Amino acid sequence: SEGIDLAEREVLREVARAIAAAPLPLAGGVGGGPVSTPLLAATPTPNPSRKREGDEVAQAIARAHAAFPAWSATPVETRAAILERYADLLEANRTELMAYAVREAFKTIPDALGEIREAADFCRYYAVQARGILAPRILPGPTGERNELRMMGRGVWATIAPWNFPLAIFTGQNAAALVAGNTGVAKPAPQTPGIAARAVELAHEAGVPRDALVLVTGGAEAGAALTGDPRIAGVAFTGSTATAKAIARSLLEDDNRPIVPLIAETGGINAMIVDSTALPEQVVADVIASAFRSAGQRCSALRLLIVQEEVAETILTMLRGAMELLVVGDPGDPRTDVGPVIDDAAYDRLMAYRESVKGRWIKTVLVPATGRFVPPTAIRLDDLDDLQQEWFGPLLHVATWRAGELTATIERVNAKRFGLTMGLHSRIARSAEIAETTAKVGNLYINRSMIGAVVGSQPFGGEGLSGTGPKAGGPNYLPRFCVERAVSVDTTSAGGNASLLSLE
Ligand code: UN1
């Protein structure tokens, strides 16, 4: 879902017009504005009162709970067809949705386009999956019995999405919950309520009953009210490891509540290992995309580049040159490679860290004087163990490794206990095999960039501190949203072929 081809130039023009016309302040200080423009006067702001927020959440859950029986009884085929209509509507409204992604999440135009494609891909992929794996299945059994396995919705799912994929991940979570026969209460990140509200409207327009998908806005308070409610039958969450753990605890707090599933997709300290057989031009292009695209604000992003000593100087020289060409600025300008980071808190955190390692900068890039632009920076790491935290921005750490130590190097990355993405650049088949068996990650990328997992081809999600699985956009995701019901009917007891008689 990456990149823009020439045929899309017209879309770009349309998007530029829509961004210019959007009734939202362009925050981030882009275009010379103040650094802290209030976000989104035009969309619902998080409710300041804890009590009212809890009430709003409780009402939303009550609605989704009441809508569950009818929606779960709707045939899989109908639910799948609604998702496909939803995908069509997302595409038909892409200009407006892209404008939201640029204005609200400061996505560049290629990234904003990627959001629409990925959201539509999730809907279509889960629709096809649902028809295949959620339809009732006849199981082999003893003579005189009919046995069936039914995949049923669990109830009301809480879906909690991040601001960095405010349409794609938001839509993917909801589409999966809905097609599996659940209703949902969807909480977008507090930074991106506008695009989420529009996405939910389009889902309703596509045929999802109004109460089968209910939006709630707010931050941690709303999230806690949501996951703490005993009517919630499952949680799909993408965000930080710390929040995922807090959610897991809240799900277990009430002794009377059954244990419900939590699907968590969290952070990573993602490494790319480069050996002396790698193609340097390809390495550098993939490093630039993986570390700096989306201002490094992807959980899949490259954080730690580990280059074999012998080629380190060559690769770093080329990397410096390539970084020099990065255009940092207004995300609404099609020429921009790197936009601002999401909010003041992120900006302050990243800039303070960057300043604290100033003595180890390998290369940094000029950025506009005003706005929340964190300069893309490469930082030397003398010891792999010195990096133990995910820095969610355009900061790349660089270390070296010695020939013969591939397994040991991968094990040192594993020891950080995250396990989301890893990259290997090598032309040696044996090295690829070592990485495949040694790297404890959900997504291993060999000789390519580490971002932009495509739904259906690169099911995405990590292990260890990076998440619970199953992988979004993969064949094992939907079953987690279901309960399995085995139905066995004695077909002999009425003395005939069936023990069940139709009353008609
Ligand atoms: C995330 O940043 O939360 O592969 C997920 C990618 C995206 C997934 C990133 N499809 O870059």
Automatic annotation (TrEMBL):
Domain Aldehyde dehydrogenase stretches: 54-483
Pathways per UniProt: Amino-acid degradation; L-proline degradation into L-glutamate; L-glutamate from L-proline: step 2/2; Amino-acid degradation; L-proline degradation into L-glutamate; L-glutamate from L-proline: step 1/2
Keyword DNA-binding recorded: yes
EC number: 1.5.5.2, 1.2.1.88
Signal peptide: none
A GO molecular function held by the record: L-glutamate gamma-semialdehyde dehydrogenase activity
Enzyme type, top EC level: oxidoreductase
Cofactor(s) this protein requires: FAD
Catalytic reaction(s) noted: L-glutamate 5-semialdehyde + NAD(+) + H2O = L-glutamate + NADH + 2 H(+); L-proline + a quinone = (S)-1-pyrroline-5-carboxylate + a quinol + H(+)
Keyword NAD: yes
Alphabetized UniProt keyword annotations: DNA-binding, FAD, Flavoprotein, NAD, Oxidoreductase, Proline metabolism, Repressor, Transcription, Transcription regulation
Function: Oxidizes proline to glutamate for use as a carbon and nitrogen source.
Family: In the N-terminal section; belongs to the proline dehydrogenase family. In the C-terminal section; belongs to the aldehyde dehydrogenase family.
Name of the protein: Bifunctional protein PutA
The organism of origin for this protein: Sphingomonas qomolangmaensis
Residues of the full protein shown: 491 to 994 of 998
